[in-house]
Amino acid sequence: MVTFDRATQFAAGIESCSQRRDGGLILRAITRIRLQGLAGVIGCILMLAFAGPACGQAQRDGAIHLGVASCAGDNCHGAMERSQGSSVAQNEFRIWSRFDKHHRAYAVLLEERAVRIARNLGLPNAATADLCLGCHTDYVPPGRRGPLFQISDGVGCEGCHGGSSTWLGVHISGARHSENLAAGLYPTEQPAARAAKCLSCHFGDPTDDNRFVTHRIMGAGHPRMGFELDTYTAVQPAHFVVDQSYIERKGPVDHVRVWAVGQAVDLTKRMDAIIEPKRAPKGLFPELVLFDCQSCHHPYNSQPGESYGTAGSAPGSLKLYDANAIMLQAVAAHLVPATGKALSSHIPALQSAIGESWSAVQGEAREMRRLATGLLPTLASHDFSRDDAKALTKNVISLGLAGDGTQYSVAEQAAMALASIAAALKSSGQLSDGQSSAMTRAMNRLYGSFAADETYRYAPFVQALKEFQRTVPR
Amino acid sequence: MARLFHEVGVIALIILLSAVGHAGAQVQNDESNHLGVARCSGNNCHGAVERPKGSAVAQNEYLIWKGETDKGIDKHRLAYEVLKRERAVQIAHNLGLPDAVNAPICLHCHSDYVPKDEQGPGYDISDGVGCEACHGAAERWIGVHLSGSGHKANLDAGLYPMEQPVARAEKCLSCHFGNSNEEDQFVTHRIMGAGHPRMPFELDTYSYAQPAHFTVDETYVKRKGPMNDVQMWAVGQAVNLVKRMDALLDPKHAPKGVQPELVLFDCAACHHTITQIRWRRRSSTGLDPGSVKLDDANAVMLRVIASRVAPAAAKALGQHMLALHRATTEDWKTVVREATEVRGAAKELEDALSSHEFTRDDMKALADGVIAVGLSGDDTDFPGAEQATLALGSIASAMKMSGSLNPEQTKAVKNALDGLYKSISDAATYHPEAFVQALKDFQKALPQ
Predict the structure, then answer these.
(1) Which of these ranges, A32-36, A348-352, A361-365, B283-287, has the smallest mean pLDDT?
(2) C-alpha atoms less than 13 angstroms from C-alpha of A236 in its C-beta half-sphere
(3) B82 near B110, Cβ under 8 Å?
């Protein structure tokens, strides 16, 4: 039995504020829960605010999308109370519609910021632009929209779980999970599948112009998109509870595995984007969205030594986003040392290739992709023990403390990684209450140290990291 | 001369200058001996506390440079000193240099850097950017100069003609922008990335902000001709643009790998926070959001100047700048072609502006032109706002000197100029709206 879990805690939080509808209270609810759940608070909220309510899905299931209303019945997933004997809480729709930003993904296209972004892009309207709708809704072609389908539902149930026409019948009949899957339900409980699904928008599909946020779109005003699979699963907020019936049906949830697999899939997708001919340099510049945002977007009056350099980058050089690769290196160094070593030499090689040519960058990206996909089967099947969790904590912390890895993007990924590992340690049930709350407090300070990228300095982050390190049980 | 308006935005200027740091110096290829600052600083020469009767100059020039008057120290004096400070140590470390004080890449502009065999007995590198860095090696002309033969005789003997706008612009900009043809006299983005401060520059403003160690009085005008701040500003813009294009066209700065020489681009195009939407379409660049824009503030100012003085050149400049911006999203070959065109247009204007006589009507028209660009929304990017502010300071100063402003108007313009400087005092928190408002206030303060 799972005794502590971010998802459980969140569900509890929702009950306690189920009558409150205003956003501030919702945020506070999330805040409180994330506090309890050992994940960082302020930072996370900020990240989510940046990430905005965007999201969405590649819908290639071929099935008809019947619409959110098909799932929301009060005897289905829109129940106030869990029916006796039900395997799930049945309030999934209610959580989504009240708290989940996926629900607002379409609505946000009507807001002032989206209007301005659309204008900057020369589009008449964000709410009718393929470029936006690809991820801000469950954007299936009209022929695959059932009678209850509404584009204004944003990223609804079928955005992630797949078009339900093929499996709804089986599902309603009380079939087992494996039968639902066989009928076409998307396996979001499997870390690699979940990662691929989430990242199809939270990073994007570089081959698809309607599902990839280019630097042009960023420059027009789109918020930056931070992502870490395990953390973002918890803060949607999750509309599932990992209890005994969940584990019986879908297997146990290992936060460390979800994190690690998420990193490998994310890195693979980033390297795909580099390799993709559509994202090749145009004119004098490469596709800048593939680069580390803060390596350019920092005040230029920051002191030297606060520079955003990293191994392989010359001062003043563009720097590719490599925080996923650095996290994956921390994982591999423990589980597959040879791959860890290879990553540690290919990460700087990728950066220094920028000074050579795009084809050199692509060559290194292929190597990196090979290493990431090579790790995936190990990560997806490895049983992460408490010792593993502790070793990974140590690796992530030492990367952060190394000095090289303390640029903003790495600080952000390191903190989310530590929150996920801490959640795993916690759910293993072996931490005392005192240990848990000390870790929570330290984690909150860690998140606070990079809450705003414009004021981020590595020294306070390193300090917070050291303080967190002291709270990790030996 | 009451150099009112360059005493105005003092706070802002100090900020600008401290961003510039203490750099500034000269390429010295005059191949005569540099005799050293000590040779000029005698108390009966340029180190006099009081002006001797009948002297053509105040003779306190050395004292001003050294910081021994109430004007504050000339940062040229500190140019070498600063190489020993913590920031320079960190920059050198980031660049893989053992230290900054021995690195030619730093010394070229942080001292009067001449080869050993051109260093006279009084030469001291630690003087930083001393007299001869700007006025030329004294060996050739000091005899003539001491004999009191007149300015023309000094020039003939080799004194550098600092009073001539094009010559002064080239001298200052050889470090304040950099020389593209000298291996180590150009601050690349690599050096910036290692921690070097940004280098804003405007010839007229910076001439006074050093602080100036000359006074344009009757004897100055008699010896060197009249000085017109608007002309100094205008010529400075043309020379600056020529040098920018030279740097862009220099094969040493051609793109390496997948990045061009970033120092030629607008710093604030990338170095801004990403939490607010700030992008606006500009008709004079045509660039899409998310593009990295060349720093075109000089070109925009020059277009304003040319519209008044040489309208045909203004049109050509505008068209080629637009094409140059577009070329950065196309290919290097087109960049080279358009940069060559822009250079040609700027070079022509350099001549036209240095011979043009700027009237009071010109001054008013140029002030209106600079204001109009800002208010049209076409250039309220940070470097554009910065250059517009510096320009209006120079124009206002010229208006004051030419008698276009009465005392009341002078006061109003001074206050409005303070507002403009305030709006650009910090690139990190710069808001175009505040600049535009300050611009409107300035417009109201100008006599109609």
Answers:
(1) A32-36
(2) 27
(3) yes
Q: Which residues of chain B are within 8 Å of residue A354 when distances are taken between CB atoms?
A: 257-259
The whole-number pLDDT of residue A9 equals 33
State the Cα–Cα distance between residues B369 and B67, nearest whole angstrom.
Answer: 37
The answer to whether B14 faces chain A, any CB pair under 8 Å, is: no
What tokens does B12 get? 């802002």
* DSSP 8-state class, residue B288: P
Stated pTM of the model: 0.89
Dihedral pair phi/psi, residue A65, rounded to 5°: -95, 110
Which residues of chain B carry a pLDDT beneath 50?
1-4, 7-28
The residue of A113, A216, A284 whose CB has the most chain B CBs within 10 angstroms, and thus the best one to mutate to test that interface, is A284
Interface predicted TM-score of the whole assembly (ipTM), two decimals: 0.89
Q: Is A4 exposed, middle or buried (0-12, 13-18, 19+ CB in 10 A)?
A: middle
Bridge partners of residue A282, in order along the sequence: A285
What pLDDT band is residue A431 in, cutting at 50, 70 and 90?
confident
B248 chain-A contacts, CB cut-off 8 A = none
Number of cross-chain residue pairs from A and B with Cβ atoms under 8 Å apart: 150
Query: Angle of helix B432-445 relative to helix B407-423, nearest 10 degrees?
Result: 170
Contact call for B258 and A453, based on CB within 8 A:
no
Test the B interface: residue of A120, A300, A456 with most B CBs within 10 Å: A300
Q: What's the one-letter identity of residue B338?
A: E
Inter-residue contact A416 to A231 (CB < 8 Å): yes
CA distance B56 to B61: 12
- Is the peptide bond preceding residue A377 cis, with omega within 30 degrees of 0? no
pLDDT at A455: 79
